[in-house]
Structures are given as structure tokens and as C-alpha cells.
Design a protein that fits this description.
The protein is α/β, with parallel strands linked by helices. It has one domain: Collagenase (Catalytic Domain), CATH 3.40.390. A four-stranded mixed sheet has the order 3-4-6-5. Strand 5 and strand 6 form a beta hairpin. Helix 1 crosses helix 2, helix 2 packs across helix 6 and helix 5 packs across helix 6. The chain is globular and about 35 Å long. The protein starts with a strand and ends with a helix. Bound molecules: zinc ion (ZN). Zinc ion binds next to helix 5 and helix 6.
């Protein structure tokens, strides 16, 4: 896939609504998006905003974890600004990626989340439509770019993107990661 092509997510509503719901485990959320993957040709342009995007956290973060999160967040913002294909992932969902990052709230996963949800393949989780992204202990083990990819992945869920297998028509977690990697140069 060259730089002119990305896979876009084209959601269209079914009968069920996709309303924000209270926080629930993992990606276990269901809402009315059906996802179709397609290839689009996009112009190569790099317009950009320059104002800082605020990072919102709640709860206690160690200095090291806060710095790691801040570094990942800066990369996520910069990739959105640099890559139209990265912004397009959000635009296809009717959302603005920077606004969603600015509206996200990052909190540490609780001990019960660590045992029940976090694991080797889960570094962070959220609920569809929720601004709250919970970071597992192993988030800190990701390098800055991998961590930025995860923040963008979770922001797509905030934008309403569901995930298989909970939503059979939706992309899997790994497919979402691949879309972010390709679209955002991560
Ligand atoms: Zn996910």
C-alpha cells in the first residue's frame, strides 16, 4: 500500500443506535455501525494546526508513566497533523481526531481490570463512544510509537468504531492496529 492509499472505514448506521455507554470491559460494546473497508485515493497534503492539544489524565501516574504517556500523546497528535490518511480514519467516522484526543481522559486500569482485561495483548481499553481510556500496566512497556498507535486505536473507539468479535461486521483489534499503522505512519 503506498502513501496515496489507505484503507478507510466507512460506517453506516443500522437500526440500532450507537450511544455512549457506561464503562464496560474491554471492547465488549455493541452499537450500530457496520464497517466496510475500502481503498481510497487521497491527496498528499499536510496542512496543520499548531496549537497544543491538552493531555487529560485522572488519578495517580508515576513520573515515568506520565512522561511516557505524554510522549505517546505528542506522537499521536503529530501523526494526525502530518498524515491526512490518519485524520481520514476519524473523518470517516464523522469525527476529528485531534478533538477526540483532546477530549480523551486517560486513567490507570484498576487491579480488577489488570486481572480480568489487561494481558499480553491488551495494553489499554475503552468502551465504544467513551472518552475514558484505561491504561494497563503493560502500556509502559510499549515503545513511544507503539503507545501512540494504541492511543489512536482507543480514540477510534471513542469516535464510535466497534470491534470484532463483539460486533461481527467490525474490524478486529489487530485490523484496527493495522489501519492506524498504515494510515498514521506508525
Ligand atoms: Zn480496540
Amino acid at each position: 500500500m503506498d502513501e496515496h492509499h489507505i484503507q478507510n472505514l466507512t460506517p453506516f448506521l443500522h437500526s440500532r443506535a450507537c450511544a455512549p455507554r457506561p464503562f464496560v470491559a474491554g471492547h465488549d460494546v455493541r452499537c450500530g455501525f457496520r464497517i466496510r473497508l475500502r481503498i481510497l485515493e487521497l491527496p498528499r497534503v499536510t496542512p496543520s494546526r499548531t496549537t497544543p492539544v491538552p493531555l487529560r489524565t485522572a488519578g495517580v501516574f508515576s513520573h515515568g508513566d506520565a512522561a511516557h504517556l505524554a510522549g505517546a500523546f505528542r506522537i499521536a497528535v503529530s501523526r494526525l497533523r502530518l498524515h491526512p490518511s490518519c485524520r481520514a480514519l476519524f473523518e470517516e467516522l464523522g469525527a476529528d481526531g485531534e478533538e477526540l484526543l483532546a477530549g480523551s481522559l486517560y486513567v490507570r486500569a484498576g487491579s480488577h481490570h489488570e486481572t480480568q482485561i489487561c494481558g499480553r495483548r491488551v495494553a489499554a481499553f475503552t468502551a465504544i463512544g467513551s472518552p475514558v481510556t484505561r491504561l494497563c500496566r503493560n502500556f509502559r512497556r510499549l515503545d513511544a510509537e507503539q503507545a501512540a498507535l494504541i492511543l489512536l486505536h482507543e480514540a477510534l473507539h471513542f469516535a464510535g468504531l466497534p470491534e470484532a468479535p463483539h460486533e461481527p461486521e467490525a474490524p478486529t483489534s489487530q485490523e484496527i492496529n493495522q489501519l492506524v499503522a498504515a494510515g498514521c505512519g506508525l
